[in-house]
Amino acid sequence: MSEQDTYVRAKLTEISGGLERLTTILNRMIEVISKFGETQEGVSGLASAVEANSGKLDELIQMMRKVALAGPVGSKAGEERTVSSSLQAVLDTLDSQIHEGAIASDVAVKLNDAAETFEQKAGGGPLVVRIQRWTRILRTYGRVDPITPTDLKKLREDMREWQRELAKGK
After folding, report:
1. Quick one: how far is CA 118 from the chain centroid?
2. Which of 70, 87, 116 is the last residue of a domain?
3. Alpha-carbon distances of 4 from 12, 13, 112, 123, 170, rounded to whole Å
4. Contact 121, 83 (CB under 8 A)
5. Interacting residues of 46 by C-beta distance below 8 A, sequence separation 6+
6. Is residue 46 domain-shared with residue 94, that is, in the same domain?
7. 87 touches 122 (CB < 8 A)
8. pLDDT in tens, the chain (170 residues)
9. Could you say which DSSP state residue 141 is in?
10. Are residues 27 and 2 in the same domain?
11. Residues 154, 93 share a domain
12. Can you list the positions of beta strands (E) in 36-168?
């Protein structure tokens, strides 16, 4: 064998090794791309499941609101006591949800829902206006800001006053 043949053979061996490495890398890339495809299919399946569940939750919330608005059938005094106790339950739930470090925007949504419930069941009035006032105050906070301790204290005092008003039968 000549020196030139040896050189060509060495180069061919080097090229062959490079092709093998390139083939290995391409095979790995194909595996990664197929995993991406599988992951994307899984994510789209989860997204559709979340959408379906969200729709079901919306339906349940609407049905619960209709049931709450319908209320039980009974005497006028019984209905008033039921409305009063359900409104008291709304305030009790609010009281348990308002705590140190609570996000103002979340509490504003809950207060707005409570005001809507009061308006639907009790027909509005000054109590609804005061609850909506707190909703507007809390919406002045940033999206993820907690309620300041001063405002939290004032809100709790107002909630106790609202509960007293309900207990009196206003």
Report:
1. 23
2. 70
3. 12, 14, 88, 102, 108
4. yes
5. none
6. no
7. yes
8. 688 999 999 999 999 999 999 999 999 999 999 999 998 888 888 888 778 777 777 777 777 777 766 655 544 444 445 556 667 777 777 766 676 667 888 888 888 888 888 788 777 788 888 888 988 998 898 877 888 888 888 988 888 888 888 787 65
9. S
10. yes
11. yes
12. none
Domain containing residue 101: CATH number: 1.20.120
Domain residues for 11? 1-70
For 35, the token pair is: 């995993």
Alpha carbon distance 12, 21 (integer Å): 14
Question: Among candidates 115, 153, 150, 109, which has minimal Cα distance to 132?
Answer: 115
- Give the three-class secondary structure for 90: helix
Task: Say yes or no: 17 and 96 in one domain.
Answer: no
Q: What is the pTM of this model?
A: 0.47
- Note whether 88 and 167 are within 8 A (CB): yes
> Structurally, how many domains does the chain consist of?
2
Q: Last residue of some domain: 70, 103, 129?
A: 70
**Claim to verify: residue 6 and residue 53 sit in the same structural domain:** yes
Asked if 75 and 114 touch (Cβ cutoff 8 Å), the reply is no
